[in-house]
Structure formats: C-alpha cells, structure tokens
Amino acid sequence: MMHEVFEKLRTLQEILSKKYDIEKEIEEIPRSLTTKTELLNRLKKQYIEKNTSFDESRARIKSLRIRLEEAEKLREDYEKQMDVIKTQREYEALDKEIKYATEKEQQLRKEILREEKEQEELQHSLKREESLIALQEEELTAEKERIENESEEKRSYLESLKKEEDLIVPDLDEEIIFKFERIIRSKAGIGIVPVNNSVCTGCHMLLPAQFENEVRKGEEILFCPYCSRILFYSDTEMEDEIYLNEDEDGSLADLGDFEFEE
Ligand SMILES: [Zn+2]
Is the pTM of this model over 0.70? Predict the structure, then answer.
C-alpha cells in the first residue's frame, strides 16, 4: 500500500520538477526579447536625434548660401562702381568696401565647406544606423518568431505534464501534495529520498534511530526533520546506490544487517 504511494510520489516528483523547470523557462523567455527591443529603441532614438541635426545643418547651409549670394552681389556692385569713380577718395572708400565684401565672401565659403563636411559625416552615419536598425528589426522579428514557436512547444509540453499530474494527484493526500510541491520547488526537484544506513540521502544527516524505525515500518508518510523531504525505506541495494553519495563508512556489514532484519 505505502509502497504504491511512494511510487506515485516519485512519479509526481518527476512530473513536478519538469513542470517547474518548464514554467521557469517560459517565464524567462521574454527577457531576451526585452534586451533586443531596448537596443532597437535606443538606436531609433539616436537616429531621430541625428536626423534632426542633419536637417538643422541643411537649413544652416541654405541660409549661408543666401548670405554668400548677397555678399557676392554686393562685391560685384562695388566692382561696377569702380568703373565710374572720379576721385582718389572715392576709389579708396570703394576699394575698402570691396575688400570687406570679399573677406565676408571667403568667410562664408569657409563656413559652408565646414557645414557641408559635417552634413556629409552625418549622412554617412545616418546610413550606417539605418542599416543597423533594419538588421536589429530583422533579428527581433526572427527572435519573436523563434520565441513564439518555442513557447508554443513549451506550453504544450506543460499541458501534457499537467495532465499526467492530474492522473496521480487525486490518489494522494492533499496536504502531503501541498508540502511535497513546496519541497520540490525549494530542493532542486528532489522531494522524496530513500534512507540509507540511517542517513537521509537528501541531506546526508544521520536520522534518530527511533525515527528511522518509523520510516522502515512504512505506515505513514514521514518528512526528514532536517531537509523536510519525504523519506522512504529502500530495501533494494541498487536503488540506494543511485541516490547515495557513497560514504566510506557505509559498510557492507550494515547492509547485511538490514537484509537479515527484513
Ligand atoms: Zn534530509
């Protein structure tokens, strides 16, 4: 009778530990997506800012060109006036104006060149960022698709685990199940362990003799007083060896004793 319960608990343990792993995986899936989305948003924001700078630069060039045209026209007007001047004083004044207008022209041309260079650099980096954004968007789409497929698979696996769980759970005590689930969650998926040589194979603590006897009787479900795992007494050596972290003192004599007592 009790043997069956332990068997069921072990089966349930297998289902539950898989279930918790899968649940955790499903929970963690959107994280990689968040990182990629954040990166994409940052790239887009940067691109918009740079694009604004580009527009501003273009507007500056436009206004510089207008001012350059004006300066050129002014200089040309002065040069025409040169043909009709009559006095040395007029010549000197005009010459000064022409020099001033020429300087202004040169200064504007320099500014335009500098601005054009900046604009060109901006354009290059905008193009670079455009392709980076496109690439990132592509990656994100692929990632979303992959994740959707993956989640779909995981969810259906989870569903099948839940169905298996539902087949076992009704046969077991509700309170035991409740405790058992908590232990499995907190103890890395292991909630039921055999006692071997008076030691809980879950936490390797030596159990009180009286308590071990209770476990051996197998009349009720007992929890390890140290690690809270459910304990069962295993009378097959093979099973023990699977769970046991061989301790050197676990002598054959002890095992022999157990066999005799059975
Ligand atoms: Zn224990």
Answer: no
